[in-house]
Amino acid sequence: MSALLDRDRMLARAREAASAVVDPELPMLTLADLGVLRDVTVDDDGAVVAAITPTYSGCPAMAAMRDDLVRELRAAGFADARVRVVLEPAWTTDWITPAGRAALAAAGISPPGPAPQRSGPVLLRLTPARRAVRCPLCGSDDVTVGSEFGSTACKALYRCRACLEPFEHVKEI
Amino acid sequence: MPDVRTHEPDDHDNAYAGLLVNDAHWAFGTDFEDPLAGVDTTVPDGVDPATLATYCLMLGDDALVLSQRLAEWCSNAPDLEEDIALSNIALDLLGQARLLLARAAAADGSQVPTLPDSSPVPDEDRLAFFRDAPQFRNVRLAEVPGGDFAQTVVRILLFSSWRLALLDRLNQSRDAVLAAVAAKAVKELTYHRDFAGRWFLTLARGTDESRRRLVAGLDALWPFWTELFETHDVERAAARSGVGVDPADVAADVEAVLDQVLAASGVERPAQPPHAADHGRDGRTGRDGEHTEALTALLAEMQVVARAHPGGQW
């Protein structure tokens, strides 16, 4: 077997192990589905480096993500596994994969719409954000926002006026 | 994919069931995590490392001190939604502070307090927990005591309008780390400002009492407004070398945002001169380490555990 092929296989195995790690606060999503896992590399000595980017500046899940990645990579046979941080470009909910969006909806969490685009200064919005949100439980679009802030930095609280159930929506950033 | 089950689906009788199932998700490990692990922290050519570090401390201290003030609301806000909102805002600011203090330490290690060799405390924590008030570089708007909910809304509006304008320009910083931290922070400050702006409007148009409290809050914080736009020598030097922003350059934009909120709310600008806050000797401000006594009490509470255990691992 050539060394090149061997390395390709190692890289595939490392990517598979890293991609399967789930978000500690949204465990229905893998870090790959969330768009947090930016890159996985393997060097000549078999050392693996996984690159992750924070979702929010203060996201306390980053430490758990790092520990989980190192643990899973070691379990996959990579003794030298490290995690590096990528700050640029900043994470956006647009990086959540279609599979990730489906997993969120299946878990009763409304997935984000397209992230806001802007040119020029950031505009102040004095009226509540208008989003095309549907209740993930009954599908109704008759929903009302309870709070722009929720149990984690990434979610807003909504309530469905049709089925009366509360639900969370992943905010577009 | 790891099993993320947290309890037996049919076990409804035991409140403790599942507490220790797969708790690896919550095991944060026994060492500290470097928020800039693997990030290139080389200081750009032609930039004085001490200037860059002090400039990052200024922006980091602003966020750290206001974060601590807002955290005081945790479990004390008027309702659960606002409690969670204020805690979320505090957490975002804490994250910004952590990155900025880590960037300061990476640029100029000589500004990081020295601890015994055996101490595992990382640099950003040394800066947060082992400096005294005169070494803090935050603006005084961040440190003055909390006041009521209306005053908190005013403070977040003033602070986030100013900081959003600053960091939006910092996006162009020649320091790639600072530019990246700023770009992410802008997204967060956008919804902090929206939150405060909407509450400002709500309280202004609510009852006589909510309006009275809002206006009183604005009057109380107004003396600290112009300090935000005074250019410190370090900020001037940072701006000249292309890594920082001169706060005087964002004044017009920020005043326009404030006018927009005041006009929508039917609230007048306070009559008192905005520069009523006493400056210290030779016009020193928070940026020089000249603070109100409130900062000392805030830091005492924030730092007491870390200082009691300088070798502690968490």
TrEMBL record, chain A:
It holds the Pfam family Zn_ribbon_PaaD. The lineage of its organism: Bacteria, Bacillati, Actinomycetota, Actinomycetes, Micrococcales. This is Ring-1,2-phenylacetyl-CoA epoxidase subunit PaaD. Residues 15-76 form the MIP18 family-like domain. Gene3D superfamilies: Fe-S cluster assembly (FSCA). SUPFAM superfamilies: Fe-S cluster assembly (FSCA) domain-like. Residues 127-171 form the PaaD zinc beta ribbon domain.
UniProtKB/TrEMBL annotation, chain B:
Coiled coil: none annotated. Its EC number is 1.14.13.149. The keyword Oxidoreductase applies. InterPro entries: Aromatic_CoA_ox/epox, Ferritin-like, Ferritin-like_SF, PaaA_PaaC, PaaC. The keyword Oxidoreductase applies. Keywords: Oxidoreductase. It comes from the Bacteria. Residues 267-290 are annotated as: Disordered. Pfam families: PaaA_PaaC (PF05138). GO terms for molecular function: phenylacetyl-CoA 1,2-epoxidase activity. Residues 276-290 have a biased composition (Basic and acidic residues). NCBIfam families: PA_CoA_Oxy3 (TIGR02158). This is Ring-1,2-phenylacetyl-CoA epoxidase subunit PaaC.
